[in-house]
## 1
Amino acid sequence: MKASLSVEAIGHDTIEYLRWGSNLLDDCGLPGKSIVGNPVELAGWGIWDVREDRKVKRMIYGRTDYSNANSKGSRGVRIWYTLESGHLYFVRSPTSWRNVDEFYCRVNDEGDIERE
């Protein structure tokens, strides 16, 4: 069974500017990733597929929804993820600019997401 979960990408515009700046530095022959950092690691949100010992296997990529975003894209941008049953996931979901809700979850056989 599959389930979908959305996470608000607070500060999405900043991450996009960092990605743009990093690519610009790379094009100029400077090591952009080492100067700016990896934008994926700087983001305060995301979902990762983890093993039973809670070590990360891979990052899950989602679909970005701008339908409720403000004009800059700093709030209201949502990332929708499709989760499958039989996997353990680590979720980082911002609740505000300073607070992030972090938890582990699974999808049960009925398609409901259960927090651990």
## 2
Amino acid sequence: MPRTPLWPTPVLLLAAAFASPARADTPAPVVIPTVGRTVHYRVTRLAQGNAGPRSLSSDVTLRRKSATALTLKGIAGDPAAEQTALTVQPDGLLQIPAADSAAAANGALVDVVNGLNRLVELFAGERSIPRDGWSPILHLPDLHGANSSVAVPVAAINAGAAGFDLHGVGQFTVEASAAQSPAATPARTFNRRRGFRGGPAFPGTGATAGTAGEGSAPAGPTHPSVTVAVAVDGSVRRTAVRKISILETRSVTVDDVPYVNVSGWTIEVSK
């Protein structure tokens, strides 16, 4: 009677040893909560002020009401009970309703929404994170030139079932363009004396600060070209953002004098 071997043949052992392991991508984090769920973030905004860098932290609560609506509260400077209704667009980005003029004028709220939207775009379209990384597109709506965007190749580091760390840097240049009338000047402008000005920053600045008057771009045939470098760093644990930093460095040279502006967000789960 033939005997069944106790161990696989050497050929089978070699095949098993050199077989490619199954791909085990890490689930992408859920940034905006699903319907009926709540998430808490600490959003720290870094912005350039006249006297140097300033930061402002908001401990916000996002509560998803429906597929297209959620509420946000906890903006620094707001009463504890005050909340804002936001629209969730089909691509997952948050939007302040056009009819809510008070919310649109709240600079701290606008900054938080902009930071959260960059975080949404960081993981947009990714159901799972490939072990070799991915390349999200981040839009920079406050930069001169409508719908400016930058691709940020991101590396997933130490990816596994428990999560992963990430790091990425992307850069692009908005070329010099013809000057616009004051009414059409973008919210994020440049001034030779003060550097970059305008755009939401902190309570009281308003969502359209710097669009005209003091802080607007100087009269002249062109706006100077602006180079933007976007760096992202952080960590994800299981399906939640643990802590992500998004840093934007903008540089411009005027009359052979370089100017640099650094701003960004740090977003982390607070509860």
## 3
Amino acid sequence: MKRILALLPVAALAGFSLSGCGAAGCSSSPATIGTPSGATCSVAAGSTITFNVTICSKCTDTSPGCQAEFLTDHIELQPTVQQCTDQSGCSTQGCSTNPTVACNVSNIPANAVGYPIQIVGDTTVQATLTFAGTGSSCTL
């Protein structure tokens, strides 16, 4: 997954137009994570889960998205944003908004007890998933 994210800026530089930025070029970047480390989530086992990850959006960020993957020993969520050159003159200090990004993960085994979650953005944040709940989504 990290290789895909690494190739997106190359595609943008090669002249591919990505949506959300107007005529100026954009590149995909890891989002700044706004989720606190140690967050927990409880859902029903065996379902597709939507993790709503809070990010710190700067004025240069548009089109938030997420790559999500269920691995054998943890769940990895990688929120991304498009950073646009036509917005590069704005102040990037602090967050201008704190939106959530939906990260969908399927193939969770029905007999699962719990998994660590790694939210990988500009930093890595740890969270925990347990299967004591009844829902199929949570906000981290």
## 4
Amino acid sequence: MTNVRGLTYQTLIEITGAIESAELRRVQPGTEHPRASSTDDVEGFFSLCRRLISQRFTLREFKDQWPRIVK
């Protein structure tokens, strides 16, 4: 993994996304960066999985619980 001045690649992407989002809100008030909303959706999905299955689950447990998750 490459570091840029001590920042990991993921951190650099998050900072870039935050800057893009702030600039988009400045230029077009009331608008959110599309990557920000999709990240919230993914985090919400994983929170749901952790609540329905367990904090740490395996792929097999996830597949077994899939019908319950999408219900």
